[in-house]
Every structure is written in C-alpha cells, then in structure tokens.
Amino acid sequence: MRKHIIFFLAEDDLSYSIAAILDGLIGELDGRVKLSSQRYLGAILTELKIRLRPNLMRRHDTLKVIVYSISELYKERYKPIFDIPIFPAVSLGGYNYFGEEAVDIVSELYSILSSGGHLSSEQVIKHLLHRRRRIGSLNRVKVERPEDPRLGGKNPAVASICKLVFEELMGKLDRLRLERKIDDVRYERLKEIYVKLLGVKLLKID
User: Fold this and answer.
1) Residue 62 β-bridge partners
2) In terms of residue numbers, what domain contains 121?
3) What Cα–Cα distance (Å) separates residue 73 from each residue in 14, 43, 82, 109, 145?
4) 99 and 63 co-located in one domain
5) Element spanning 28, H or E
6) Which portions of the chain are predicted below pLDDT 50?
C-alpha cells in the first residue's frame, strides 16, 4: 500500500474547505511538517511530509500528503490527466473519492494526526479506508496508476503536467519561428532548454 494521500483541488467551496483544514493541520502539528511546492501551467503542486509520532520501538514514520491546486481556467484540461470527473477529489489506497467525501477524509485525517496517537503512515491510511467502508461510500472509484519506467521515477500526473507545459511552450515557439521572430538556431536552442528543464525526453516527446 502506498504511504501517501493525494488531494486534487480547484476553485470551489469544497476545495477551499479542504485547503483550510490542511492549513489548520500544519499549524496544529507545529514543526512536524516539511513543506515544498512547485508551479506548473495552471497548477501548483504542494507536498507535505508529515513526521508522525514515534511508535513503541521509538521509530518515526513519515506520511506524505500531495495537493494539486488547479486554476479554474485549466480545470477541464487536468481532469483527464488526473483521471477524475469532478473536483475536489482525493486518491487514497487505490481509490478515488469525490466532493463532500473528500472533505470528510481530510477532516478525519486532521482528527487522527492531532489526537496524539502513535500510528504509522500505513495505519493512518488503513484507518481512513476502514472508516470509508464502515459508513459507506457513494462516490468511490477504484483506480490503477501503474508506474511507467520511462518516467524515471517521476509521478505520472507530474509527468503529464510537464508534457502539457512542454506542448504549450513549443506551440508558442513554433509561432515565433513561423513569424520569423527567431531563427532555426535559436529555436533548437530553446527547445533543448525546455527538454532539459521538463525532462520530456523521458516521455519520448520530439
């Protein structure tokens, strides 16, 4: 079982509720969260590495929470990339949950992590899944996200975002060359830079 939870948020009230709960959780855990973020075309990827309390063997575990925040303008373009029909959504233990269920899951996550328990990341995820099964789920879809060896360990969704960004940039570059605003030498040089920055060689994009 993967030891991470992925939230997909847009610009709607339920997504804002999830973001607010996660912000509150970061404050509640007081220094036990390592935060990083990256900007993409119409999206921000935020990664929370949460250091859990030590177990009886005094060992620490880390729970990873990934949050994709999508601009309203790009929402429809990202749905097929993430394989979700609506926002907000959460991917948990091989299933996707949508709408208010995503809010319920982040609320339960807040309760678990702020309660002072000594659960591992796997136990946290199992607890969330068990609660979903116990109360029943109306908006649950089983998903398969196999790792593609061509991505060099890159998250498939991130790789898809990189591909989308590359295509946008190359479209603009093609127009500049067509309008004779750049020559072939500069075109190839910029293309090489885009390939290197976005890692699109791994995606076999020419």
Assistant:
1) 51
2) 4-142
3) 18, 10, 16, 29, 25
4) yes
5) helix 13-29
6) 145-153, 201-206
Whether residues 190 and 116 fall in one domain: no
Going edge to edge, which strands form the sheet with 89-92? 33-40, 43-51, 62-70, 4-9, 89-92, 95-98, 140-142
Are 133 and 195 found together in one domain?
Answer: no
50 in Cβ contact with 62 (< 8 Å): yes
CA distance 148 to 181: 38
* pLDDT computed for residue 24 by the predictor: 94
- Residues 68, 170 share a domain: no
105 with 175, same domain: the answer is no
Domain boundary residue among 142, 177, 195? 142
Give pTM, 2 decimals.
0.71
| pLDDT at residue number 205 | 33
Q: Which of 142, 158, 189 is the last residue of a domain?
A: 142
Domain count, the chain: 2
Question: Residue 139 corresponds to which tokens in the numbers above?
Answer: 């908006």
Distance of CA 192 to the CA centre of its chain: 27
Helix (H, G, I), strand (E, B) or coil at 55: coil
The residue assigned the tokens 């969260």 is: 33
Is the same domain home to 42 and 11? yes
State residue 177's pLDDT score: 84
Pick the closest to residue 42 from 17, 71, 16 (CA basis): 71
